[in-house]
Write a structure and sequence with these properties.
By secondary structure, the protein is of the alpha/beta class. The chain is 29% helix and 24% strand. It has 13 helices and 23 strands. The strands form five sheets. It has a seven-stranded mixed β-sheet. The chain has a five-stranded antiparallel β-sheet with strand order 2-1-23-22-21, sandwiched between helices. A hairpin with a 4-residue loop joins β17 and β18. The chain is globular, with a radius of gyration of 25 Å. The N terminus is likely disordered.
Length: 504
């Protein structure tokens, strides 16, 4: 073949979206077919599949920036592991103002949050709440405190800046996916409720708060029962501005009762309240009850009314501290369950440790620096607004994910990072995926899913059956603006991933 013919073929490959060195394979053929399918022909989508040795197997629209959804957690967790270290632990401190005289604390007890997102959680990584509270109570006894004249104050001031990402859509900001941030949290700052239709069309929807208890909250329920077939259209609003929670919208008459998880913006107050109750049962009474600290630095009592300014943390007497589970375990839970609250905590902690601020503009600075250390270019190639991927102003390309995942393979934390990624058919978000694939195939796949309305993304690694490291496949498959049924998109994604696994 002469040079002219080789040039023509290379240009033809590029016009089709393939790299010139890509070999014809089953994945490539299937991706080519997808261009005209009803599900994807009008959608925005892209693919990049490469081997660890640098060879590219498939590349289509790989530089097109798209919404990554929870695929963004791949970047957040990878950078947190690499920058903070797999054994990093969050610290929660107990301290007091005033003095201790004859067993009585003449002042307030502060629970000073250090960002631990696992307090009160019921997942596989968190310590049992009873264990944590018992540890804190032991600190009080060792300090000679058997009674508190003042309050138990939940102190979440360690994280500065907004308690929620301002780029999130309103409907996401107060549901269970968008719980508010605080350096002292409880149960992931979530609130479980039970909702059920009323007995007749137009009657009030039944809304029952379940856990945690929020006795200071004023509830407003304006939901009405809609006609059969109209589905679920409920919206929850609650901010730190006032202790008011509002549930609005409609719930169809034929819908079953279900658990609905919402955001609880009073995480620090909730933690203080539950520890107050625990101490009461242990015979240690806090005379003025629980409180927290508002955005202006004022102590708020049980009625959420601002009182005197909180004491500066440096002026308090620290009596002990507790530590969270190791970061590598929190990262694993973050990716396995695709936990937005954990992911946002990791990003803001990274920023705080590297820049001295947990604000989202500082997060961008810290993230850019960390990516630069990995040798992954940032300028003009992506836009990251949060740590979880919940926001719709995040834009990342399949090529960038492959570049990042390739760089992570060269880090000292890669073993822990790989273990944090879900596998099809196992615990986590992929438990029901690729059900028809053999265990041999599924055991070689480590990947993260991402989904929003109209968005389906998968990125990760496929280990080679041969055991040759250079044959490891690194991939990213992203779809945006799809209106096809989720089951059909899932089928297409599973087939692409299965074909990729057959390549190594």
């Amino acid at each position: 073949m002469n040079l002219r013919n080789k040039t023509i073929i290379a240009l033809l490959c590029l016009s089709l979206g393939w790299t010139a060195n890509a070999q014809t394979n089953a994945v490539q053929k299937y991706v080519e077919q997808l261009k005209t399918t009803e599900e994807l022909k009008d959608a925005v989508w892209g693919v990049k599949v490469a081997k660890a040795d640098g060879s590219v197997l498939v590349e289509y629209n790989s530089n097109k920036r798209m919404l990554p959804a929870s695929n963004l957690k791949l970047i957040t967790t990878g950078l947190a592991l690499n920058e903070l270290g797999p054994d990093y632990k969050f610290t929660t401190r107990l301290a007091y103002s005033g003095s201790v005289e004859d067993g009585v604390l003449k002042g307030d007890l502060y629970i000073i949050g250090g960002g631990d997102p696992t307090i009160g959680m019921r997942d596989s990584v968190a310590f049992q709440l009873q264990k944590t509270f018992s540890e804190w109570a032991s600190m009080l006894r060792k300090a000679g405190i058997s009674h508190i004249d003042g309050r138990i104050i939940g102190d979440g001031r360690y994280f500065d800046g907004e308690d929620q990402n301002l780029s999130w859509q309103l409907e996401d900001s107060y549901c269970g996916d968008g719980s508010a941030m605080s350096a002292l949290s409880f149960y992931g700052n979530l609130l479980d409720t039970r909702v059920a239709p009323g007995k007749s069309l137009g009657s009030p929807v039944q809304v029952e708060p379940l856990f945690p208890e929020l006795p200071w909250m004023n509830w407003r329920n304006t939901c009405v029962t809609a006609a059969k077939g109209e589905g679920n259209d409920l919206y929850f609003l609650c901010t730190t501005l006032a202790p008011v929670a509002s549930m609005s919208g409609t719930y169809a008459l034929d819908q079953p009762a279900k658990r609905l998880t919402c955001a609880n913006p009073f995480g620090a107050m909730t933690c203080a309240y539950y520890f107050y109750r625990y101490l009461e049962n242990e015979g240690i009474l806090a005379a003025e009850g629980p409180a927290d600290i508002d955005a202006s630095g004022n102590i708020r009592d049980f009625e959420q009314e601002a009182m005197q300014p909180a004491r500066a943390q440096r002026s308090l007497t620290v009596i002990g501290e507790s530590r969270s589970p190791a970061l590598k375990d929190i990262v694993r839970e973050t990716n396995y369950r695709s936990d937005n609250f954990y992911a946002e905590t990791l990003l803001r902690t990274l920023a705080l440790e590297k820049t001295g601020s947990a604000r989202y503009d500082s997060c961008a600075v810290a993230e850019s620096a960390a990516l630069g250390k990995l040798g992954v270019g940032l300028a003009g190639s992506m836009q990251i607004m949060d740590g979880s991927g919940l926001g719709r102003k995040n834009y990342v390309s399949p090529a960038f994910f492959v570049q990042f995942l390739t760089a992570m393979r060269g880090t000292a934390v890669f073993k822990d990072y790989l273990k944090s990624l879900p596998q099809p058919g196992k615990y986590g978000t992929l438990s029901t995926r690729m059900v028809s694939s053999s265990p041999e195939v599924k055991n070689r796949i480590y990947m993260k899913s991402g989904s929003l309305n109209g968005v389906r993304c998968f990125s990760g690694y496929i280990l080679p059956s041969s055991g040759k490291d250079e044959d490891t496949i690194i991939f990213s498959v992203m779809t945006n603006n799809t209106i096809a049924e989720t089951s059909r998109i899932n089928f297409i994604m599973d087939k692409i991933i299965g074909l990729m696994a057959a390549e190594n």
